[in-house]
Write a structure and sequence with these properties.
By secondary structure, this protein is an alpha+beta fold. The protein has one domain: Muramoyl-pentapeptide Carboxypeptidase, domain 2, CATH 3.30.1380. Helix content is 39%, strand content 7%. The strands form two sheets. It has a four-stranded antiparallel β-sheet. The longest helix is centred in the N-terminal third of the chain and has 21 residues. The protein binds zinc ion (ZN). The site of zinc ion (ZN) has 5 residues, from strand 4. The site of zinc ion has 5 residues, from strand 4.
């Protein structure tokens, strides 16, 4: 069943795939409702003295997907893939530069921002200074990061990958160790932040050790979770700096699994190799279970 749905969802026509997602969701709901185990006695078992309850009403068939439902799914697809400008979204807020590591203007969803400020204030009381090194990154921003690694402009592990890994699929996998392909990054959502650095070695020494230990101990009190922990068998490598605001990101992760198909992940260098990988299951959904 999943395979059939998944193969249907590979269709490039987004409108049709949206219709199918809607029909599938309502169909699943209908199936679950109509197959709920009955707690009533079987109709031929008459229990003396017990009033016979009226039969369950026959459920009304679910209405077909309306243009409004399809429009909402298309809107969410656009958002989940990062095809928007956070500076122009009413859901996002510009982060004051006093809370950021660098001087470039960054944005977050308001809920994430408020939770970060609460967490930052609590950390400061314990002598830990948390600043945002990276926040919302839309598709175009991520595409720029990705393409520069792909074509060798940005070295990866000190190397020009365009020269050292000429095989496209292998180069794609190498970049995936730490970078999401455009359209698959949690940074698109405005729910995820990199704190104080994006370099693992930072946490090998102080103040990184104290900062990470504080986050492990306390971040969940403010709704934050580390999605890329050590010890997972698939997905990105451990990222001690990347924290996700679960009250919003948890639902978005589920929505991503339902709405986004591999055909949606396109429009950057090397995108032809998306078909050779399972980016959605092996990367987007391959996170610390506590972040779901
Ligand atoms: Zn990150």
């Amino acid at each position: 069943m999943i395979l059939i749905i998944s193969s249907i969802l590979h269709m490039k026509n987004h409108i049709w795939s949206a219709i199918i997602v809607v029909v599938f969701l309502f169909g699943t709901h209908f199936y679950i409702v109509s197959n709920r185990p009955s707690t009533e006695p079987a109709s031929n078992e008459v229990v003396v003295g017990t009033p016979v309850p009226p039969p369950d009403p026959v459920p009304e068939p679910m209405p077909p997907a309306t243009p409004e439902m399809i429009r909402k799914i298309e809107e969410e697809r656009t958002y989940l893939l990062g095809h928007f400008d956070p500076a122009k979204s009413s859901e996002f807020i510009a982060i004051p530069l006093k809370y950021t590591m660098y001087q470039n203007q960054m944005y977050l969803r308001k809920e994430t921002y408020d939770a970060f400020l609460d967490m930052r204030a609590a950390a400061l009381k314990d002598g830990v200074n948390l600043k945002i090194a990276s926040a919302a990154r839309n598709f175009n921003y991520q595409k720029n990061l990705w393409n520069n690694k792909w074509n060798g402009t940005t070295p990866v592990d000190g190397k020009n990958l365009a020269q050292t890994i000429p095989d496209g699929l292998e180069r794609f996998k190498k970049i995936l160790e730490y970078s999401a392909a455009p359209g698959t990054s949690r940074h698109h959502w405005g729910t995820d932040i990199d704190i104080n650095t994006a370099e693992g070695a930072y946490f090998d020494v102080e103040p990184g050790i104290k900062e990470y230990n504080w986050l492990v101990e306390n971040a969940s009190l403010f709704g934050f979770c580390q999605p890329y922990t050590a010890g997972r068998s698939l997905g990105y490598n451990e990222e001690k700096w990347h924290w996700s605001y679960v009250p919003v990101a948890g639902q978005l992760t589920k929505d991503y699994a339902k709405i986004i198909t591999p055909a949606d992940i396109t429009g950057f260098e090397g995108a032809t190799y998306v078909q050779n990988l399972d980016l959605i299951n092996d990367y987007v959904l391959e996170i610390n279970p506590l972040c779901r």
